[in-house]
Amino acid sequence: MTTTADIVVAGAGHNSLITAAYLAKAGYECLILDAGEIAGGATATQELLVPGFAFDVCSTGHTLIQPNPVLRDDELGLKREYGLEYIHPDPVAHVVFPDGESFTHWFDLDRTYDEIARFSKRDAETYRRLLAEYAEIRDAVNRYRFNPVGYAPALDEAAAGVPSGAKWLRRFNQSAWDVIGYDYEDRHIQAYLIWQAFQTAQPVDSAGSGLLGVSITAGRQMQSWALPKGGSGMLPLALTRLLADHGASIVTGKRVVQLLVENGRCAGVETADGERYLARHAVVSTIHVKALVEMAPRELWGEGFLHGIDTYDVGLSFAAQYYATTEPPEFVAHEGTQTVASGGVVGWPEDVIQAGRDVRQGKAQIGTWLLVGTPSVADPTRVPGGGHTIKLLSHQPWAPAGDPANWETFNDELEHELFAVLQRAAPNLTEDKVLARKAKSPLELERANPHLWHGAVHGGDRGVAYEGRLRPAPGWAQHRMPIPGLYQTGATTHPGGSVTGGPGRNAAIVLLQDLGHDPATVMRGAGREAQRA
Protein backbone atom coordinates (compact mmCIF):
# COMPACT_ATOMS: atom_id res chain seq x y z
CA MET A 1 0.00 0.00 0.00
CA THR A 2 1.18 3.53 -0.75
CA THR A 3 0.23 6.59 1.28
CA THR A 4 1.06 10.19 0.33
CA ALA A 5 1.42 13.33 2.45
CA ASP A 6 3.08 16.73 2.10
CA ILE A 7 5.78 15.86 4.64
CA VAL A 8 6.80 12.37 5.75
CA VAL A 9 8.65 12.21 9.06
CA ALA A 10 10.67 9.14 10.05
CA GLY A 11 10.70 8.95 13.82
CA ALA A 12 8.48 10.44 16.53
CA GLY A 13 10.98 11.64 19.11
CA HIS A 14 10.48 15.08 20.59
CA ASN A 15 12.71 16.79 18.01
CA SER A 16 10.96 15.36 14.95
CA LEU A 17 7.57 16.09 16.54
CA ILE A 18 8.63 19.71 17.04
CA THR A 19 9.76 19.96 13.40
CA ALA A 20 6.45 18.47 12.26
CA ALA A 21 4.48 20.76 14.57
CA TYR A 22 5.91 23.91 12.97
CA LEU A 23 5.29 22.49 9.48
CA ALA A 24 1.73 21.51 10.39
CA LYS A 25 1.23 24.98 11.83
CA ALA A 26 2.28 26.34 8.43
CA GLY A 27 -0.48 24.29 6.78
CA TYR A 28 1.38 21.19 5.62
CA GLU A 29 -0.09 17.70 5.87
CA CYS A 30 2.39 15.74 8.00
CA LEU A 31 2.62 11.97 8.39
CA ILE A 32 4.88 10.75 11.20
CA LEU A 33 6.09 7.14 11.42
CA ASP A 34 7.69 5.51 14.43
CA ALA A 35 8.88 2.00 15.23
CA GLY A 36 7.77 2.23 18.85
CA GLU A 37 4.43 1.46 20.44
CA ILE A 38 3.88 5.11 21.37
CA ALA A 39 5.24 8.44 20.18
CA GLY A 40 7.97 10.16 22.12
CA GLY A 41 11.14 8.16 21.51
CA ALA A 42 13.57 8.88 24.35
CA THR A 43 11.04 11.25 25.97
CA ALA A 44 8.34 8.57 26.35
CA THR A 45 6.80 7.66 29.71
CA GLN A 46 5.44 4.14 30.28
CA GLU A 47 4.25 1.81 33.03
CA LEU A 48 7.29 -0.42 32.82
CA LEU A 49 6.87 -2.44 36.01
CA VAL A 50 3.69 -1.91 38.03
CA PRO A 51 0.30 -0.54 36.90
CA GLY A 52 0.04 3.14 37.71
CA PHE A 53 3.80 3.69 38.16
CA ALA A 54 4.82 6.03 35.33
CA PHE A 55 8.51 5.66 34.41
CA ASP A 56 10.45 7.89 32.07
CA VAL A 57 12.08 5.31 29.83
CA CYS A 58 15.07 7.53 29.06
CA SER A 59 15.02 11.29 29.64
CA THR A 60 13.56 12.86 32.77
CA GLY A 61 15.02 16.35 33.26
CA HIS A 62 13.92 19.03 30.78
CA THR A 63 16.11 21.90 31.97
CA LEU A 64 17.90 22.48 28.67
CA ILE A 65 14.70 23.01 26.66
CA GLN A 66 13.46 25.79 28.95
CA PRO A 67 15.34 28.63 27.13
CA ASN A 68 14.29 27.28 23.72
CA PRO A 69 11.69 29.67 22.22
CA VAL A 70 9.41 26.67 21.73
CA LEU A 71 8.87 26.82 25.51
CA ARG A 72 10.35 30.17 26.55
CA ASP A 73 7.94 32.00 24.22
CA ASP A 74 5.47 29.10 24.04
CA GLU A 75 5.59 29.41 20.24
CA LEU A 76 3.49 26.27 19.72
CA GLY A 77 1.13 26.87 22.63
CA LEU A 78 2.21 23.65 24.32
CA LYS A 79 1.78 25.21 27.77
CA ARG A 80 -1.00 27.64 26.96
CA GLU A 81 -3.23 25.30 24.95
CA TYR A 82 -2.06 21.70 25.38
CA GLY A 83 -1.54 21.28 29.10
CA LEU A 84 2.26 21.04 29.33
CA GLU A 85 3.27 22.05 32.86
CA TYR A 86 6.67 22.05 34.54
CA ILE A 87 7.78 21.51 38.12
CA HIS A 88 11.06 23.01 39.40
CA PRO A 89 12.11 20.87 42.38
CA ASP A 90 13.92 22.17 45.43
CA PRO A 91 16.52 20.99 46.28
CA VAL A 92 17.95 20.90 42.79
CA ALA A 93 20.23 17.93 43.50
CA HIS A 94 22.03 15.99 46.22
CA VAL A 95 25.13 13.81 45.87
CA VAL A 96 27.12 11.57 48.20
CA PHE A 97 30.92 11.45 48.07
CA PRO A 98 33.34 8.57 48.76
CA ASP A 99 34.20 9.87 52.25
CA GLY A 100 30.55 9.87 53.33
CA GLU A 101 30.20 13.63 52.98
CA SER A 102 27.42 15.02 50.80
CA PHE A 103 26.40 18.18 48.99
CA THR A 104 22.93 19.65 48.52
CA HIS A 105 22.30 22.09 45.69
CA TRP A 106 19.41 24.42 46.49
CA PHE A 107 17.22 26.42 44.12
CA ASP A 108 17.90 29.50 46.26
CA LEU A 109 21.32 30.90 45.32
CA ASP A 110 22.14 32.15 48.80
CA ARG A 111 21.41 28.74 50.26
CA THR A 112 23.62 27.09 47.64
CA TYR A 113 26.35 29.63 48.43
CA ASP A 114 26.19 28.65 52.10
CA GLU A 115 26.38 24.95 51.22
CA ILE A 116 29.46 25.49 49.06
CA ALA A 117 31.00 27.69 51.76
CA ARG A 118 30.68 24.77 54.17
CA PHE A 119 33.53 23.27 52.12
CA SER A 120 35.25 26.41 50.83
CA LYS A 121 34.37 30.09 51.17
CA ARG A 122 36.60 30.79 48.16
CA ASP A 123 34.67 28.27 46.05
CA ALA A 124 31.36 29.85 47.08
CA GLU A 125 32.61 33.21 45.82
CA THR A 126 33.88 31.54 42.64
CA TYR A 127 30.47 29.98 42.03
CA ARG A 128 28.78 33.40 42.21
CA ARG A 129 31.42 34.88 39.91
CA LEU A 130 31.09 32.15 37.28
CA LEU A 131 27.30 32.45 37.29
CA ALA A 132 27.71 36.18 36.64
CA GLU A 133 30.21 35.54 33.86
CA TYR A 134 27.92 32.97 32.26
CA ALA A 135 25.05 35.49 32.43
CA GLU A 136 27.11 37.73 30.16
CA ILE A 137 27.03 35.16 27.35
CA ARG A 138 23.85 33.20 28.15
CA ASP A 139 21.66 34.87 25.55
CA ALA A 140 24.32 34.46 22.86
CA VAL A 141 24.77 30.78 23.77
CA ASN A 142 21.01 30.24 23.51
CA ARG A 143 20.86 31.99 20.13
CA TYR A 144 23.66 29.72 18.94
CA ARG A 145 21.94 26.57 20.18
CA PHE A 146 18.44 27.42 19.04
CA ASN A 147 19.22 28.48 15.51
CA PRO A 148 20.60 26.43 12.60
CA VAL A 149 24.35 26.54 12.12
CA GLY A 150 25.28 29.80 10.40
CA TYR A 151 22.02 31.54 11.31
CA ALA A 152 23.42 32.98 14.56
CA PRO A 153 26.95 33.91 15.67
CA ALA A 154 29.21 31.01 16.65
CA LEU A 155 30.32 30.63 20.26
CA ASP A 156 33.62 32.41 19.70
CA GLU A 157 31.73 35.40 18.31
CA ALA A 158 29.31 35.21 21.23
CA ALA A 159 32.18 35.95 23.58
CA ALA A 160 33.21 39.10 21.76
CA GLY A 161 32.55 42.35 23.54
CA VAL A 162 31.70 41.03 27.02
CA PRO A 163 33.97 41.63 30.02
CA SER A 164 34.70 37.92 30.51
CA GLY A 165 35.02 37.26 26.77
CA ALA A 166 38.71 36.32 26.79
CA LYS A 167 38.05 33.74 29.51
CA TRP A 168 35.24 32.18 27.49
CA LEU A 169 37.36 31.95 24.36
CA ARG A 170 39.68 29.71 26.36
CA ARG A 171 36.92 27.79 28.15
CA PHE A 172 35.07 26.90 24.95
CA ASN A 173 38.08 24.88 23.85
CA GLN A 174 39.09 23.42 27.19
CA SER A 175 37.61 20.40 28.91
CA ALA A 176 35.02 20.62 31.67
CA TRP A 177 37.66 19.37 34.09
CA ASP A 178 40.13 22.04 32.92
CA VAL A 179 37.59 24.70 33.87
CA ILE A 180 36.40 23.12 37.12
CA GLY A 181 39.89 22.11 38.28
CA TYR A 182 41.27 25.59 37.64
CA ASP A 183 38.49 27.60 39.25
CA TYR A 184 37.60 25.47 42.29
CA GLU A 185 39.85 24.25 45.09
CA ASP A 186 37.77 21.83 47.18
CA ARG A 187 37.55 18.26 45.91
CA HIS A 188 33.95 17.85 47.02
CA ILE A 189 32.84 20.88 45.02
CA GLN A 190 34.93 19.78 42.06
CA ALA A 191 33.34 16.32 42.20
CA TYR A 192 29.82 17.72 42.40
CA LEU A 193 30.34 19.96 39.37
CA ILE A 194 31.86 17.05 37.43
CA TRP A 195 28.83 14.93 38.37
CA GLN A 196 26.60 17.58 36.81
CA ALA A 197 28.76 18.05 33.70
CA PHE A 198 28.93 14.29 33.03
CA GLN A 199 25.12 14.09 32.80
CA THR A 200 25.53 15.12 29.17
CA ALA A 201 27.48 11.87 28.58
CA GLN A 202 30.40 13.96 27.40
CA PRO A 203 33.72 12.83 28.92
CA VAL A 204 34.70 15.56 31.34
CA ASP A 205 38.30 15.55 30.10
CA SER A 206 37.37 16.00 26.42
CA ALA A 207 38.45 19.14 24.58
CA GLY A 208 35.47 21.36 23.83
CA SER A 209 33.45 20.37 26.91
CA GLY A 210 34.61 23.37 28.93
CA LEU A 211 31.31 25.22 28.69
CA LEU A 212 29.65 22.31 30.51
CA GLY A 213 31.79 23.07 33.53
CA VAL A 214 29.67 26.17 34.07
CA SER A 215 26.53 26.06 31.93
CA ILE A 216 24.94 22.92 33.39
CA THR A 217 24.94 24.16 36.98
CA ALA A 218 23.98 27.65 35.81
CA GLY A 219 20.93 26.18 34.11
CA ARG A 220 20.07 24.16 37.20
CA GLN A 221 20.39 27.27 39.36
CA MET A 222 17.87 29.06 37.13
CA GLN A 223 15.44 26.24 36.32
CA SER A 224 16.32 23.39 38.73
CA TRP A 225 15.98 19.90 37.24
CA ALA A 226 12.82 20.90 35.39
CA LEU A 227 10.25 18.06 35.30
CA PRO A 228 7.13 17.84 33.14
CA LYS A 229 4.22 17.22 35.49
CA GLY A 230 3.04 13.67 34.83
CA GLY A 231 6.25 12.48 33.21
CA SER A 232 8.66 13.21 30.39
CA GLY A 233 6.04 11.87 28.00
CA MET A 234 3.85 14.90 28.60
CA LEU A 235 6.04 16.83 26.14
CA PRO A 236 5.40 14.47 23.20
CA LEU A 237 1.77 14.13 24.32
CA ALA A 238 1.27 17.89 24.04
CA LEU A 239 2.96 17.83 20.63
CA THR A 240 0.78 14.97 19.37
CA ARG A 241 -2.35 16.83 20.50
CA LEU A 242 -1.20 19.91 18.58
CA LEU A 243 -0.41 17.82 15.51
CA ALA A 244 -3.82 16.16 15.60
CA ASP A 245 -5.47 19.57 15.76
CA HIS A 246 -3.55 20.52 12.60
CA GLY A 247 -4.47 17.40 10.65
CA ALA A 248 -1.26 15.44 11.09
CA SER A 249 -1.18 11.65 11.44
CA ILE A 250 1.12 9.58 13.65
CA VAL A 251 1.47 5.89 12.86
CA THR A 252 3.33 3.76 15.41
CA GLY A 253 4.72 0.28 14.95
CA LYS A 254 6.20 1.33 11.60
CA ARG A 255 9.96 0.99 11.34
CA VAL A 256 11.48 2.79 8.38
CA VAL A 257 14.03 0.59 6.61
CA GLN A 258 14.59 2.30 3.26
CA LEU A 259 14.63 5.74 1.66
CA LEU A 260 12.80 5.94 -1.65
CA VAL A 261 14.76 7.94 -4.20
CA GLU A 262 13.22 8.96 -7.52
CA ASN A 263 14.99 11.10 -10.11
CA GLY A 264 17.77 11.82 -7.64
CA ARG A 265 15.42 13.12 -4.95
CA CYS A 266 14.18 11.54 -1.71
CA ALA A 267 10.54 10.89 -2.50
CA GLY A 268 9.50 8.94 0.57
CA VAL A 269 10.27 5.94 2.76
CA GLU A 270 9.47 2.26 2.98
CA THR A 271 8.72 0.46 6.25
CA ALA A 272 9.62 -3.05 7.37
CA ASP A 273 6.17 -4.35 6.38
CA GLY A 274 6.70 -3.24 2.77
CA GLU A 275 4.41 -0.20 2.88
CA ARG A 276 5.49 2.95 1.07
CA TYR A 277 4.96 6.52 2.25
CA LEU A 278 5.52 9.22 -0.35
CA ALA A 279 6.21 12.89 0.34
CA ARG A 280 5.06 15.72 -1.92
CA HIS A 281 7.58 18.17 -0.48
CA ALA A 282 10.14 16.61 1.85
CA VAL A 283 11.17 13.73 4.08
CA VAL A 284 12.36 14.52 7.61
CA SER A 285 14.50 11.91 9.36
CA THR A 286 15.44 11.45 12.99
CA ILE A 287 16.98 8.05 12.22
CA HIS A 288 20.49 7.79 13.64
CA VAL A 289 22.91 8.85 10.91
CA LYS A 290 24.86 5.59 11.24
CA ALA A 291 21.73 3.73 10.15
CA LEU A 292 20.49 6.39 7.75
CA VAL A 293 23.40 6.01 5.32
CA GLU A 294 22.54 2.31 4.91
CA MET A 295 19.02 3.13 3.69
CA ALA A 296 20.02 4.42 0.25
CA PRO A 297 22.79 3.54 -2.23
CA ARG A 298 26.12 4.80 -0.94
CA GLU A 299 26.95 6.66 -4.14
CA LEU A 300 24.02 9.02 -3.47
CA TRP A 301 25.60 10.31 -0.27
CA GLY A 302 28.97 11.37 -1.63
CA GLU A 303 32.43 10.47 -0.35
CA GLY A 304 32.79 13.48 1.96
CA PHE A 305 29.51 12.86 3.77
CA LEU A 306 30.19 9.14 4.13
CA HIS A 307 33.61 9.87 5.59
CA GLY A 308 31.97 12.24 8.07
CA ILE A 309 29.50 9.58 9.18
CA ASP A 310 32.03 6.74 9.20
CA THR A 311 34.22 8.79 11.54
CA TYR A 312 31.34 10.14 13.65
CA ASP A 313 31.84 9.22 17.32
CA VAL A 314 28.60 7.77 18.68
CA GLY A 315 29.56 8.69 22.24
CA LEU A 316 29.34 6.94 25.59
CA SER A 317 26.69 4.32 26.27
CA PHE A 318 24.33 4.19 29.24
CA ALA A 319 22.75 1.47 31.30
CA ALA A 320 19.39 2.12 32.99
CA GLN A 321 17.79 0.47 36.01
CA TYR A 322 14.20 1.01 37.11
CA TYR A 323 12.62 0.39 40.52
CA ALA A 324 9.05 0.70 41.76
CA THR A 325 9.33 1.27 45.52
CA THR A 326 7.26 2.07 48.57
CA GLU A 327 9.50 4.98 49.58
CA PRO A 328 12.15 7.22 48.01
CA PRO A 329 15.88 7.00 48.64
CA GLU A 330 16.79 8.92 51.79
CA PHE A 331 20.35 9.96 51.02
CA VAL A 332 22.86 10.48 53.77
CA ALA A 333 23.25 14.21 54.36
CA HIS A 334 25.29 16.60 56.46
CA GLU A 335 22.46 16.78 58.97
CA GLY A 336 20.21 13.73 58.81
CA THR A 337 18.96 12.57 55.40
CA GLN A 338 17.77 14.18 52.19
CA THR A 339 15.14 13.15 49.66
CA VAL A 340 15.49 14.66 46.22
CA ALA A 341 14.22 14.28 42.66
CA SER A 342 17.76 14.32 41.26
CA GLY A 343 20.35 12.56 43.38
CA GLY A 344 23.47 10.58 42.88
CA VAL A 345 26.82 9.17 43.86
CA VAL A 346 30.12 10.48 42.59
CA GLY A 347 33.80 9.65 43.05
CA TRP A 348 36.70 12.07 43.19
CA PRO A 349 37.50 13.96 39.98
CA GLU A 350 40.36 11.68 38.94
CA ASP A 351 38.10 8.66 39.43
CA VAL A 352 35.35 10.09 37.23
CA ILE A 353 37.88 10.97 34.53
CA GLN A 354 39.24 7.44 34.64
CA ALA A 355 35.73 5.96 34.57
CA GLY A 356 35.03 7.74 31.29
CA ARG A 357 38.24 6.32 29.84
CA ASP A 358 37.46 2.85 31.16
CA VAL A 359 34.04 2.83 29.52
CA ARG A 360 35.72 3.62 26.20
CA GLN A 361 37.95 0.58 26.76
CA GLY A 362 35.07 -1.81 27.46
CA LYS A 363 35.32 -1.74 31.26
CA ALA A 364 32.28 -1.29 33.49
CA GLN A 365 32.23 1.47 36.08
CA ILE A 366 30.66 0.51 39.38
CA GLY A 367 29.36 3.52 41.24
CA THR A 368 31.98 6.11 40.33
CA TRP A 369 29.21 8.15 38.73
CA LEU A 370 25.54 7.38 39.28
CA LEU A 371 22.48 9.51 38.53
CA VAL A 372 19.48 8.56 40.67
CA GLY A 373 16.25 10.08 39.42
CA THR A 374 13.24 9.94 41.74
CA PRO A 375 10.85 12.39 40.08
CA SER A 376 7.96 11.14 42.19
CA VAL A 377 9.50 13.05 45.12
CA ALA A 378 8.48 16.29 43.39
CA ASP A 379 5.59 14.94 41.28
CA PRO A 380 3.34 12.47 43.11
CA THR A 381 0.97 12.37 40.11
CA ARG A 382 3.32 9.80 38.56
CA VAL A 383 2.56 7.11 41.13
CA PRO A 384 -0.40 5.82 43.16
CA GLY A 385 -0.69 5.62 46.91
CA GLY A 386 2.58 7.21 47.94
CA GLY A 387 4.80 4.91 45.90
CA HIS A 388 7.90 6.03 44.03
CA THR A 389 9.71 5.50 40.76
CA ILE A 390 13.49 5.35 40.84
CA LYS A 391 15.74 5.30 37.78
CA LEU A 392 19.49 4.72 37.97
CA LEU A 393 21.63 5.81 35.04
CA SER A 394 25.30 4.96 34.66
CA HIS A 395 27.84 5.22 31.86
CA GLN A 396 28.71 1.69 30.72
CA PRO A 397 30.56 0.13 27.78
CA TRP A 398 28.70 -0.94 24.67
CA ALA A 399 30.89 -4.02 24.45
CA PRO A 400 32.04 -5.21 27.89
CA ALA A 401 35.26 -7.19 27.51
CA GLY A 402 35.01 -6.52 23.77
CA ASP A 403 31.64 -8.10 22.98
CA PRO A 404 28.10 -6.62 23.33
CA ALA A 405 26.77 -10.17 23.77
CA ASN A 406 28.39 -10.23 27.21
CA TRP A 407 25.51 -8.08 28.42
CA GLU A 408 23.30 -11.17 28.33
CA THR A 409 25.10 -12.47 31.42
CA PHE A 410 26.56 -9.27 32.88
CA ASN A 411 23.35 -7.21 33.07
CA ASP A 412 21.94 -8.79 36.24
CA GLU A 413 25.29 -8.68 37.97
CA LEU A 414 25.66 -4.96 37.22
CA GLU A 415 22.15 -4.25 38.48
CA HIS A 416 22.85 -5.85 41.85
CA GLU A 417 26.20 -4.10 42.22
CA LEU A 418 24.82 -0.65 41.39
CA PHE A 419 21.80 -1.11 43.62
CA ALA A 420 24.22 -1.91 46.45
CA VAL A 421 26.01 1.38 45.72
CA LEU A 422 22.66 3.17 45.99
CA GLN A 423 21.89 1.41 49.28
CA ARG A 424 25.16 2.64 50.79
CA ALA A 425 24.19 6.19 49.86
CA ALA A 426 20.54 5.70 50.91
CA PRO A 427 20.47 2.95 53.59
CA ASN A 428 16.69 3.10 53.99
CA LEU A 429 16.22 1.49 50.57
CA THR A 430 16.21 -2.12 51.71
CA GLU A 431 15.01 -4.95 49.48
CA ASP A 432 11.57 -5.06 51.15
CA LYS A 433 10.93 -1.50 49.84
CA VAL A 434 11.29 -2.68 46.21
CA LEU A 435 8.03 -3.74 44.55
CA ALA A 436 9.55 -4.49 41.14
CA ARG A 437 12.78 -3.90 39.22
CA LYS A 438 14.11 -3.96 35.69
CA ALA A 439 17.57 -3.38 34.23
CA LYS A 440 18.32 -2.33 30.65
CA SER A 441 21.82 -2.68 29.26
CA PRO A 442 23.06 -0.45 26.42
CA LEU A 443 22.18 -3.35 24.12
CA GLU A 444 18.57 -3.38 25.34
CA LEU A 445 18.28 0.39 25.12
CA GLU A 446 19.22 0.21 21.44
CA ARG A 447 16.79 -2.66 20.83
CA ALA A 448 13.98 -0.64 22.39
CA ASN A 449 14.86 2.51 20.44
CA PRO A 450 17.21 2.16 17.43
CA HIS A 451 17.99 5.88 17.59
CA LEU A 452 19.87 5.14 20.84
CA TRP A 453 22.70 3.76 18.75
CA HIS A 454 24.93 1.53 20.90
CA GLY A 455 22.95 2.64 23.93
CA ALA A 456 24.23 6.22 23.64
CA VAL A 457 21.31 8.39 24.70
CA HIS A 458 22.72 11.77 23.63
CA GLY A 459 23.14 11.10 19.93
CA GLY A 460 26.92 11.17 19.79
CA ASP A 461 30.03 12.80 21.17
CA ARG A 462 29.96 16.60 21.32
CA GLY A 463 33.68 17.28 21.42
CA VAL A 464 35.34 19.75 19.06
CA ALA A 465 35.33 17.29 16.13
CA TYR A 466 31.56 16.67 16.29
CA GLU A 467 30.03 19.97 17.35
CA GLY A 468 28.25 22.78 15.54
CA ARG A 469 29.24 23.02 11.90
CA LEU A 470 30.86 19.56 12.06
CA ARG A 471 27.70 17.75 13.24
CA PRO A 472 26.83 15.19 11.94
CA ALA A 473 29.37 15.63 9.13
CA PRO A 474 31.48 18.56 7.96
CA GLY A 475 29.62 20.51 5.30
CA TRP A 476 26.23 19.04 6.23
CA ALA A 477 25.31 20.78 9.47
CA GLN A 478 22.26 22.72 8.25
CA HIS A 479 19.85 19.76 8.35
CA ARG A 480 19.81 19.36 4.55
CA MET A 481 21.20 15.95 3.60
CA PRO A 482 23.16 15.13 0.42
CA ILE A 483 20.05 13.57 -1.14
CA PRO A 484 17.75 16.45 -2.15
CA GLY A 485 14.41 16.45 -0.37
CA LEU A 486 15.83 14.73 2.73
CA TYR A 487 16.28 16.66 5.99
CA GLN A 488 17.81 15.43 9.24
CA THR A 489 16.90 16.37 12.81
CA GLY A 490 17.40 14.75 16.21
CA ALA A 491 20.37 14.39 18.53
CA THR A 492 22.89 13.70 15.75
CA THR A 493 22.40 17.28 14.56
CA HIS A 494 23.15 20.69 16.11
CA PRO A 495 23.07 21.38 19.04
CA GLY A 496 23.14 17.67 19.99
CA GLY A 497 21.48 15.43 22.53
CA SER A 498 19.44 15.77 25.70
CA VAL A 499 15.95 17.28 25.77
CA THR A 500 16.61 20.66 24.16
CA GLY A 501 14.16 20.71 21.25
CA GLY A 502 16.96 22.58 19.47
CA PRO A 503 17.46 20.14 16.58
CA GLY A 504 13.70 20.05 16.00
CA ARG A 505 13.18 23.79 15.89
CA ASN A 506 16.38 24.36 13.91
CA ALA A 507 15.40 21.83 11.24
CA ALA A 508 11.98 23.47 11.00
CA ILE A 509 13.60 26.86 10.34
CA VAL A 510 15.63 25.46 7.44
CA LEU A 511 12.77 23.50 5.92
CA LEU A 512 10.26 26.33 6.22
CA GLN A 513 12.71 28.64 4.52
CA ASP A 514 13.31 26.12 1.72
CA LEU A 515 9.55 25.83 1.25
CA GLY A 516 9.29 29.58 0.72
CA HIS A 517 8.20 30.76 4.16
CA ASP A 518 9.46 33.32 6.60
CA PRO A 519 10.14 31.03 9.60
CA ALA A 520 9.71 33.86 12.09
CA THR A 521 6.22 34.53 10.79
CA VAL A 522 5.18 30.89 11.15
CA MET A 523 6.75 30.64 14.60
CA ARG A 524 4.93 33.75 15.77
CA GLY A 525 1.68 32.04 14.86
CA ALA A 526 0.63 33.51 11.52
CA GLY A 527 0.91 30.25 9.58
CA ARG A 528 0.60 29.66 5.86
CA GLU A 529 -3.00 30.82 5.63
CA ALA A 530 -2.10 34.30 6.90
CA GLN A 531 0.87 34.48 4.55
CA ARG A 532 -1.44 33.77 1.61
CA ALA A 533 -3.98 36.42 2.63
From the structure above, extract its key features.
about 525 residues; alpha/beta; FAD/NAD(P)-binding domain; Polyamine Oxidase, Chain A, domain 2; 2 domains; 7-stranded mixed sheet; 18 helices; 20 strands; about 35% helix; about 20% strand; globular; disordered C terminus
**Share in helix:** 25-40%
Instruction: Please count the beta strands (DSSP E, at least 2 residues each).
Output: 20
Which value, in Å, is the CA radius of gyration?
Answer: 22 Å
Mean pLDDT: 95
Shape: globular
CATH architecture of the largest domain: Alpha-Beta Complex
The third-level CATH topology of the largest domain is Polyamine Oxidase, Chain A, domain 2
Write the layout of secondary structure elements.
Layout: E1 2-10, H1 14-25, E2 30-34, E3 45-46, E4 55-56, H2 69-72, E5 86-87, E6 93-96, E7 102-105, H3 109-117, H4 121-145, H5 155-158, H6 165-171, H7 176-183, H8 187-197, H9 212-223, E8 227-228, H10 234-245, E9 249-252, E10 256-262, E11 265-271, E12 276-285, H11 289-292, H12 303-310, E13 317-325, E14 331-332, E15 337-338, E16 342-346, H13 349-360, E17 369-373, E18 388-396, H14 407-425, E19 434-440, H15 442-448, E20 486-488, H16 502-514, H17 519-524, H18 527-532
Parallel strand pairs: 1-2, 1-12, 2-9, 6-16, 12-20
Antiparallel strand pairs: 3-4, 5-8, 6-7, 10-11, 11-12, 13-18, 13-19, 14-15, 16-17, 17-18
